[in-house]
Amino acid sequence: MANLVTSLCCVVLAAVVVAYAQRRSQLVGRNQYEKMGSDVTMQCGSLDNNTSVTWKVNGTDVKAQHKLEGPRLVLTKVDSSHNGLYSCFQNPHGERRDSINLRIGIPPQELAITCRSNTYPKGFYCTWQQLHPTFIPTTFEVDVQHNQRSLEVQEDRFHKNRCHVRFPEVFSIFPYQVNVTAVNALGKASTTILFEESNIVKPDPPENVKAIPVRNNPRRLEVSWNSPSTWPDINSFPLKYFLRYRPLIRDQWQHVELSDSTSHTITDAYAGKEYIIQVAAKDTEIGTWSDWSVAVHATTWIEEITCTTEVEPVIPAETSPSSIPSSKAPQKAEPPVGRAARVLTFFSPLLLGMLLLCFM
């Protein structure tokens, strides 16, 4: 009896799961990929040809040019504007029967592939990009051949369109062949390149570039840098360097090629001018130059000028009155008696004359 109950429960659970899956597929929609510019037919589930249905896209009526053929919706000359979730409803009750997530795209075409070794002699990496977008999900298959055998290809954790390969040997005379195939729901396309080991060696730019002025030398700058941290064996595979610099006010660069030294003294700088400085690196025997390092700015030595000001001693003012009064100092008022005396002195001859006339 217990086994029977258990079996019935399993049957009911399975039926519920199937019903839920069918309901969910109707809500989410199954994907249908179609080529841009083509005519597209969408079938409403498994309904027969005489069934009448109504179609909607993203919850609204289908406004694009179309025609109905029973349970089928036909769109003509589709493009990206036809993308959307199409749902069909059986008439007359309007029960949803199917949902289709329509995506318009194009088949893959030729790829651009680039391979480079910035960790020589450990290995190299290859990157690729589509010259023409497909507008729908596209995956890539990579095959690397060397000396008639396939090499292990490791996917990059951060870049979708990049892979890593270890060198099976160093100084090989056999070329490498890299084939990348792009695949999507509408087709696939392959691109193949051939290269020799020595042609893809390109270090990363030097790091931690510094430039400082030389004390009391207004035409010198001390420049130093570190070899790229990605270069695994600087002793066995040394790098040479290329230095370029220019004053900020000019566009023309000056160049210095160095052996394996990671420092250089610029001796022909303009005094008091700001300079831009960059460094590139290259394997001493094979490969190509790296990209330029991040530009650094430095100004040549400027002598410090100390200004001194002599302070004259303050001479105390004399206490005796000055013969010439200051224009700003208030003038002292004269006493009234003095003014009357001067008036009397002015009129005294006149008074004497009047008295003489009276006694005559």
Topology at a glance:
Elements: H1 2-28, E1 30-35, E2 40-43, E3 53-57, E4 60-61, E5 66-69, E6 72-75, E7 84-90, E8 95-105, E9 111-116, E10 123-130, E11 139-146, E12 149-150, E13 154-155, E14 162-166, E15 176-184, E16 187-195, E17 207-214, E18 217-226, E19 239-247, E20 254-258, E21 263-266, E22 274-283, E23 296-299, H2 336-358
Parallel strand pairs: 1-8
Antiparallel strand pairs: 2-6, 3-4, 3-7, 5-6, 7-8, 9-10, 10-14, 11-12, 11-15, 13-14, 15-16, 17-18, 18-21, 19-20, 19-22, 22-23
Can you walk through the features of this model?
There is one protein chain. It is elongated and about 95 Å long. The C terminus is likely disordered. The longest helix has 27 residues. The termini are far apart. With 360 residues, the protein is mainly beta. It has two helices and 23 strands. A five-stranded mixed β-sheet has the order 1-8-7-3-4, covered by helices on one side. Strands 9-10-14-13 form a four-stranded antiparallel β-sheet, with no helix packed on it. The chain has a four-stranded antiparallel β-sheet with strand order 12-11-15-16, with no helix packed on it.
